[in-house]
Amino acid sequence: MRLTRVVLVLVVSYYCVCSVYGKKYETRCKLVRELLRVSVPNDLFLGQWVCLIEKVSNRNTSAYTVSPSGKKFYGLYQIPSKWCKLQKPGGDCNIKCEDLLDDDIRDDTACAVKIYHQEGFKYWTVWTTRCKNDNFITNEIYKCPDLRFSLDRSSPVNTQPQNRHGIHKSSENSSLHSILKRSILQTLQSHRVEEQSRHIN
């Protein structure tokens, strides 16, 4: 009887995870388009988000992993279970863990941005080891056919208002040019700060 219950729990758990309709972004460019569609805040490093997603979930929204210690990670950003709750909204992001496994990444992105504002990219160990100081993906995404733009320094960069959580509200009318330009300019600025810090030390 006890063995039967264990098997039943495993089957139900497997069904709950596998019945969620996820999506894998076949190309980096498709992922970038979706991130822009769901309004990743303009002041965050777009290339760094793409790198993080590729390294932790291989661009798969239904990615689900369990560490040897039993810690669970969900979705495109591999968000730990402390930020969500099974079967009903909860955790630090007040979201259902199952909702992090479907093909709608708006709630996933909102939760990931909240983590970023509280902890920074360093919260994801994989980002520190595989994305930090690596601009390869950042440079690559600007080669996407419909995402190309010119770094014209005379072009204005839109500044978006912030909500009470400190997360920028993206306007639907913001140009793709402004979004991508802001991202790469901030990446360059970050490197200048690091260089100045090295000279000082």
Question: What are the main properties of this structure?
Answer:
201 residues, mainly alpha, three-stranded antiparallel β-sheet, 7 helices, disordered N terminus
Structure explained in plain terms:
With 201 residues, this protein is mainly alpha-helical. 45% of the residues lie in helices and 4% in strands. Strands 1-2-3 form a 3-stranded antiparallel β-sheet. A hairpin with a 4-residue loop joins strand 2 and strand 3. The longest helix has 25 residues. The protein is globular and about 40 Å long. The N terminus is likely disordered.
What value does the average pLDDT take? 74
- Rg over alpha carbons: 19 Å
Largest sheet: 3 strands, antiparallel
- The helicity comes to 40-55%
Number of helices: 7
Largest sheet, spatial ordering of strands: 1-2-3
Give the overall form: globular
Distance between the termini: 67 Å
Note poorly predicted spans.
1-19, 149-177
Per-chain topology:
Elements: H1 2-18, H2 28-37, H3 46-57, E1 64-66, E2 72-74, E3 79-80, H4 106-119, H5 125-130, H6 136-141, H7 176-200
Antiparallel strand pairs: 1-2, 2-3
Task: Provide a quick synopsis of the model.
The chain is mainly α. The chain has 7 helices and 3 strands, in the order αααβββαααα.
